[in-house]
Every structure is written in C-alpha cells, then in structure tokens.
Design a protein that fits this description.
With 559 residues, this protein is of the alpha+beta class. The chain has 23 helices and eleven strands. It folds into two domains: 4-248 and 294-425, no CATH class; 432-558, no CATH class. Helix 4 (88-113) runs parallel beside helix 7 and helix 7 (151-168) runs antiparallel to helix 8 (176-187).
Length: 559
C-alpha cells in the first residue's frame, strides 16, 4: 500500500497537471480542426441516431472523410457531448482527461519497474515514481497533445496503464487481464498502437519468458488480445483498416514513377539498376532514415519537418533541462544493461518510433508519442544517477537548479502556447469557421451560400457549428456526397454549396461548378471565398481574419 503522504503528493501533482490540461480547453488551440470537428459530430450523430454521419449503425471504424478513424475516441466523446453539448470543450474533454490520468499512470508504471529507487536529501525523500509524475505533468510534449482532441493521447494513456498491469502480471497473472483489455482498446484508438503494442508484447515475452507462468488468467488474457487483434486483421482485410496508411505510405505513385525514371536514366547495367532503384529497397532505406530522424535534435527541437497542429515549431518537445537529464539517464541504462527493468524501458523507447518511421511525412510529434513515458522515466533515472554519491549540499544545489530551470522552461512554453503560437498558426487550426457560420446564420435574405474548400472540409464545420440533425446529412435528397480519388467529398447540404477555390475565378461569373460537375446559378447568393478569388460582379460585405491579421474568409454578395 502507498503511504498517505505519497498519495497526497500524487493527488496534488495530478491536480496540477489536470488544471494545466483543462485550462481554457475550448480556446487553446484557437479552433478545433477538421479531425476534431469530425470526431465531435460523429459522436453527436451516434448519440442522437445510433449511426455515424454516413448512416452506418455503430461502426467499428468510422468512414469520416475517407481516412477511416478508429472508433474508441468517438464513442467516448459521445458521453462528453451528452453531458456538455456539441461544442469544442466536449470534443477535447476526453483527451484532456486522458492526459490528466496519464500522470498517476506513469507513477504506477515507474513504481512497478523501479520500486526502490528514490532521491534522498536529508529527511526529504522523493521516489522515482513521484519524480516521473512531476516530469510528465510539466512536459511540454505531453501538455500540448493533451489539449486537442487527439486519439493518440487517449491511446498513450491506455498504453501506460497497460504497461503497468503487464509488468504486474509477472508476479500475479490475473493482472494480464486488464493489460490485455487496455492494450486491446489502444489498438482501436490510434494506428500507432497497432504496430507498437504487438512489438512490445513480443519483446516482453522474450525478455521475461523465464518468469512467465501459464495460468487460466494468462490464457484468457491472450485470447482477449487475440480477439482485439482479430478485429484489426478483419479491418485490414476489408481495406478499411489500411485506408489511412494508404495516404501515408512511403511508396506513392510519384515515388514509383521517380524510381522508374532513375532506373531508365541510370548508366548501370539494367539488372544492377533494377537492384538499386526498386520499391522494397527504397522503402527500407527511407524507413531506416525516418527511424533515426526521431532520435535527432531536429525532431526534439521541432525544426525538422514540424507539423504545426501537433507541436510548436522550433520549440523543444521536452525542454533542455529534461533533455539533459534524459541523456544522463540514457548513459545510466547503457552502463547497467543487465537489469530487466532497464532493458524493458530501453526497448519501449527504441520501439516507439517504428510505426511513425513507416509513414511518408516524418518526423512529427504525434505518431511516436509512446516515447513520452520512456523519456520521462529515463529522465528520472538520470536525475538519480547524477546525484548519486555526492554530498548533501551539492545535491540541494543541483536539484534546485533543475527544479527552477524545468519550471522556467515550462512557463516560457506556456507563454508560447497561449500567446505566440495562436497568433502565428491560427490558419493551421482552420480558424474562422465558427465566426463564418455564426455570421451566415444571420443572413436570411439569400437563397444560396457558396463556401470555399480552400481550408478543407467546410461541410463538417457547417454541420458541427449548426448542430445539424445527422438525419439531414444522411439524406441523399438533401445532400450531395460522393467518393473520388480515395476520398469522400461533400458538395452540398441543403442550400449550402461547397466549391473548390480553383473553380472560383476572379472574373465576372453567373454560375459556379461543383466538384462533381453540377453547375449552380449564383443569383441572390453569398459567396465565401479568399482574397484572390473575388468575382468582379460581387460586393464585399465582410472579411474574417486569421489572428495574425491576414484575411481568412472574404464574404461577398453576388450581383
């Protein structure tokens, strides 16, 4: 049993982490992006009709835009939507809650791996699990991904708790049961888990096989994980489970064409050229390069291929003080390779970027997020290793320096997150849709509304902000929706039409052509476009700007 003092300390750390993650949740990031809105609206649709936006009853994978989202985050969001209504706070609630619960989760995982390790300074004692909890609570990387509605963050919390029960199962096999359930749920939460979990379980068996006992609990747990994995296999066989990867695959049509061109233009003998320029070899070379990029300074500093929706470009994911402790902890692991717990956490860290390395656009901060618990634990080990065998006075000085610098670094990150980042990157969050649809809802004198597709999927924002009855979206007599080029498009909902920017000339126009080919008269309509696509026979009546002042939407009255 934990001592009362430890429980109180953990509660306070978790409370701090929760306050940080829930603070102004609906305002930062500045706007829900299309994936968040899709999660929320599909949750709303499930809640009100028992079907997703496409009319499919209780799906095990959601079609959405054709990216086929895994189901668990959406089903859990239906609960928060039921409680808080269809709004930004409700769709982000699950992620913020998962981020908060990860703090006691890392405490448990660290404790079962390193139950005896602690920092002792005079009469004060800080266990490694408490240190890990503090580090996670103020880790910039984890703080960021706990704010948007991200399935990856929910999956990470399942993985952390699953790891705890997995290690506990070595001593008492009934703990394998919750481990199997949690890992199984993660397989249906985020695609990274579909690679990371099997690799982690295989590594666990190879590492601890001498201590494992086959009992009925172990067998039941094995069957449970096979059941969850069987659903994944079925989804992959039907194509729904691989649709997302199809859009992220290292080998694209342009890649295949380029390899063919290099083979043709090469001065090498044809057989050698074929061996040098081919898809399998290119895939392997790229995946290996991608993998090692995830351990580079460019990745941790988000200066190498940063995606602005998942991290702040140019800002270290961990913070320099924790990065230093992590490097020290890594040295400690290398110098003590025989300890099973050291091996397990090293393997966890090494496997974390494998799934991300197999995709086309690394390195980005979301897909390798299983790294986070390993980094936090290794950083805690680094602190203990650094303070080992030194005087008490020196321990106090070094500990104080790290506490102050870690907190200062986090405060500076908070300033970036709440002040600088929103102004600079509001376009990345598709800012302006809420303001747009609030304005259009007051314009009752027009027969039609044309909305640009410039910023992506305007129909789902329309449905979300207007709390559109899902039965309307599912009604083919009211909507125009179709499949094309591996994507599901929406061109019309009632009297709202969604048009491509390149189909909106800045000449005088009387009609607009929808993506599926239908031509619509623009008489007595409002057109929502961008600053470079304003027809000559129109009058600007309102401009909605991004937070940096650049025009996002220009609303014009057609003449």
């Amino acid at each position: 049993m934990f001592k009362n003092k430890t429980i109180i300390t953990l509660f306070l750390i978790t409370l701090l982490g929760g306050v940080l993650r829930f603070f102004m949740l609906d305002k930062f990031p500045v706007s829900p992006n299309w994936d968040e809105v899709s999660h929320g609206y599909n949750a709303f649709s499930i809640l009100t009709t028992g079907k997703d936006e496409w009319g499919i009853k209780l799906p095990l994978i959601f079609r959405a835009f054709g990216d086929f989202k895994l189901p668990l985050y959406i089903y859990l969001t239906s609960i928060s939507v039921a409680v808080f209504g269809l709004n930004t706070f409700a769709i982000r609630f699950v992620s913020a809650l998962a981020g908060t619960l990860a703090i006691p989760g890392i405490f448990l995982l660290t404790g079962v791996l390193f139950p005896e390790k602690k920092l002792q300074i005079k009469k004060l004692s800080f266990s490694l699990p408490i240190i890990s909890s503090i580090f996670l609570a103020v880790l910039p990387w984890h703080f960021f991904i706990s704010h948007p509605a991200l399935e990856a963050n929910l999956a990470l919390t399942f993985i952390i708790f699953g790891g705890y029960f997995l290690i506990k199962g070595i001593e008492m096999t009934k703990n394998f049961l919750p481990a199997a359930i949690l890992f199984g749920l993660s397989l249906h939460t985020y695609n990274t888990a579909r690679v990371f979990i099997p690799l982690l379980l295989i590594s666990f068996v190879l590492l601890y096989y001498k201590k494992l006992i086959i009992t009925r609990w172990a067998v039941i747990s094995f069957l449970i994980i096979i059941f969850f994995g069987g659903i994944v296999a079925f989804q992959m066989a039907t194509g729904a489970g691989t649709a997302r990867y199809g859009k992220l695959n290292i080998i694209t049509e342009s890649t295949a064409y380029t390899l063919g061109q290099k083979r043709t233009e090469s001065n090498l003998p044809p057989l050698v050229a074929k061996l040098v320029y081919n898809r399998p070899l290119f895939f392997i070379q790229t995946a290996i390069a991608n993998y090692f990029n995830y351990f580079s300074p460019g990745f941790f500093n988000q200066s190498l291929g940063a995606q602005t929706q998942f991290a702040i470009p140019g800002k270290n994911l961990i913070g320099l003080p924790l990065m230093l402790l992590f490097l020290i902890g890594f040295v400690y692991l290398v110098r003590h390779p025989k300890d099973k717990a050291h091996q397990f956490i090293f393997i966890w860290f090494a496997l974390s970027p494998v799934a991300a390395a197999l995709t086309v656009d690394p390195p980005q901060a979301l897909r390798p997020n299983p790294m986070i618990p390993a980094i936090v634990i290794i950083s805690g080990l680094g602190l203990l290793y650094l303070l080992e065998k030194i005087s008490t006075s020196t321990k106090i000085i070094i500990t104080s320096v790290f506490v102050i610098t870690i907190l200062l670094n986090f405060c500076l990150y908070l300033n970036d997150f709440f002040v600088t980042y929103p102004k600079t990157y509001s376009e990345a969050w598709q800012y302006g849709y809420q303001e747009l649809y609030q304005y259009l809802s007051t314009q009752n004198d027009y027969d039609k509304f044309f909305i640009t597709k410039r910023y992506g999927e305007p129909h789902i924002f329309y449905a979300f902000y207007n709390k559109l009855n899902p039965e309307i979206l599912q009604d083919k007599n009211i909507t125009t929706r179709f499949f094309q080029t591996g994507w599901y498009w929406t061109d019309k909902i009632d009297n709202y039409y969604f048009v491509n920017e390149f189909d909106t000339p800045n000449t005088e126009i009387k009609t607009l052509t929808l993506e599926h080919g239908e031509i619509i008269d623009t008489k007595n309509s409002l057109l929502v476009t961008t600053v470079n696509h304003i027809p000559k026979n129109s009058e600007v009546i309102k401009v909605i700007n991004f937070l940096d002042g650049y025009p996002a939407f220009t609303i014009v009255k057609m003449k």
